[in-house]
Inverse folding.
DNA sequence: CGAACAATTGAATCCTTTCAAAGGGAGTGG
DNA sequence: CCACTCCCTTTGAAAGGATTCAATTGTTCG
């Protein structure tokens, strides 16, 4: 089934490939099933891709931060893309401005990271790995932004919001990270976090 | 760390890209960390890719059947590739014979399928989805080949061999599939299997 | 300020893992 | 060809962890 391409605000075909396109928070960029006419590069803000399953559950197949690339897909989009925050995106025609090897590698890295998350078994491992993966984004300096909801994190890690909440509380209580409101963390003990994520020994 | 490219039997540089290369069972095709000089296409047999983690656990990031493509990676291989059965592989130079869009789509489909598996939460859902994914390979007619070990399946689905074994026994006892030895299944109730996998209703 | 939604927390249940042991197949050597 | 061994698989029982159900607290936004 196909939904037709989502509306793109400030549509200016002539310079669409040069100027970033602005999106509001929680706005849909494209729908699962749409023809993959464009691929995107995040200039500002955060984007998520959701795959909706027939049983009603959704799976978040990725979060995309500034510099990340998404929407590079063969024929039609396999997931719906939405903004997590207000965002500015570079939009490129798939045919007239196909992604360069550099972009493909970035897209590949995102997919590999998603797969790698599931190499982690327990809630602690997955959440720790998730936090570290965001902390390593080039834009992040000191603080770890978590603009997405707990439900988003849960659907990304294959857990429930309850488990995410409990696990988050636990690693805060253990002094591994510090919560700066709901949507920002500071990493206190990097080594311990890496150990939780199963990265060291 | 890099291991150097695995030995390639019957190496004939001149026609290497035309003739399939033969591998024995459980032979290593390339190592995680090697320079990604070649990409491969399965002509006969089955291949698995394993990502080894620092904690000693391994994650099987894919099984590749005839017609499937693997080893298309940016700079160096992110996982080790091994044969599950004896196999014949078409080996292509990454630079002189880069993959065509058709191949990229097949590789992408494999990655997406791996990610999709983890949208399934329970052992029953994952195993059912896994069996269905193999049953839908073009080569499969009626019977579902499971040439890989239970450990391979477990490491692919993020379960233990015990859970895989128990779950397999259960869906056999419930008459959803029939076991024809350890490494072959027949699907008895396709609808029920799809329901288990969360594909319908 | 109030309402609606999001997040946290508690208690009980269910499922998977872990620990332990037995059963079965494939391959080797006698 | 059979017996033996090794390894993979299956199965049992107990423990641990995540989910579910339920309720409270906290946050955001009109």
């Amino acid at each position: 089934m196909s939904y037709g391409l989502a509306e793109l605000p400030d549509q200016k075909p002539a310079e669409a490939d040069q100027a970033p396109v602005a999106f509001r928070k929680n706005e849909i960029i494209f729908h699962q099933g749409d023809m993959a006419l464009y691929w995107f590069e995040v200039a500002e803000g955060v984007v998520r891709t959701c795959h909706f399953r027939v049983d009603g559950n959704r799976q978040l197949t990725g979060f995309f931060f500034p510099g990340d690339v998404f929407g590079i897909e063969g024929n039609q989009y396999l997931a719906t893309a939405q903004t997590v925050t207000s965002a500015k995106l570079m939009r490129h025609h798939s045919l007239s401005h196909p992604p360069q090897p550099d972009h493909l590698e970035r897209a590949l890295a995102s997919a590999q990271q998603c797969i790698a998350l599931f190499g982690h078994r327990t809630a602690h491992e997955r959440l720790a790995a998730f936090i570290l993966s965001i902390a390593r984004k080039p834009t992040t300096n000191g603080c770890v932004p978590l603009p997405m909801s707990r439900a988003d994190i849960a659907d990304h890690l294959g857990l429930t919001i309850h488990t995410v909440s409990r696990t988050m509380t636990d690693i805060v209580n253990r002094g591994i990270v510090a919560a700066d409101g709901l949507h920002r963390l500071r990493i206190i003990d990097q080594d311990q976090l890496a150990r939780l994520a199963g990265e060291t020994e």
